[in-house]
Amino acid sequence: MPDYSTYTDEQLWYRITLDDQDAFTAVYNRYWKVLYLRARNMLSDSDLAQDIVQEVFISLWHRRQEVEVQHLKAYLFQAVRFQELKALRNLKSDANFYERLAHISKDLLLHEPMAFKELDSVLQRVLATFPEDQRTIFSMSRDEGLTYREIADRMEISIKTVEKKISRALRAIRKGMDNAFPVLLGVMAVWEKTNP
C-alpha cells in the first residue's frame, strides 16, 4: 500500500474518485480533528460537532463520483459550515442560540462576506418588526450586556416582563433565520463558486 501521508490533497482526491478507501481514510485522518475542533468551537457541543464531521465525510464518500472538488480542504471546511448552519437552524430551543448565532456570524463575516451581509439583513428586518420597548430591551441585553435585573430596574418593569420580551425576540429571530436559511445557503454556494 502506498504511503498516502506524502500525497497531496489533489492526489488523494483523484484516488478517492477511483474508489480508493485507503486514500479516503488518509483524508479523514488528515482533516477530521481540525474540522471537529472548528465545529465544536462554533456550536459548543462535542457530540453535535462529531456528528457533523462524520456526516460531511460520509456524504463526501457517497458523492465522490458526483462532486467536483477543486480544493479538498476548502471543500471540507465549506461543507462543515453548511452543516453548522443547518444545526443552528435546528437548535431552536437552545438557550445559547444567540451566542451561537454570533459565533457563526463572526465566521461568516471573515470567510463569507456575502452570506454575512444577508444574515445581517435578515436580523435587521426582524429587529425592525419589534415594538420599540422590545427592541430597547433586546438591545440593552445583547448590545450593552445588562442583566435582566438591570434592564428591569432601568425600564421600571418586572424581571418577568424582561424575560418575556427577550424570549419573544429570540423566537422571532429564530423564525427569521429559518426563513432565511435557504437564501443563506444559496448565497454561500454562489460565494464558494466565485471564490474557490
UniProtKB/TrEMBL annotation:
Transmembrane segments: none annotated. SUPFAM superfamilies: Sigma2 domain of RNA polymerase sigma factors, Sigma3 and sigma4 domains of RNA polymerase sigma factors. Pfam families: Sigma70_r2 (PF04542), Sigma70_r4_2 (PF08281). Residues 28-91 form the RNA polymerase sigma-70 region domain. Keywords: Sigma factor, Transcription, Transcription regulation. Residues 123-172 form the RNA polymerase sigma factor 70 region 4 type domain. Belongs to the sigma-70 factor family. ECF subfamily. This is RNA polymerase sigma-70 factor.
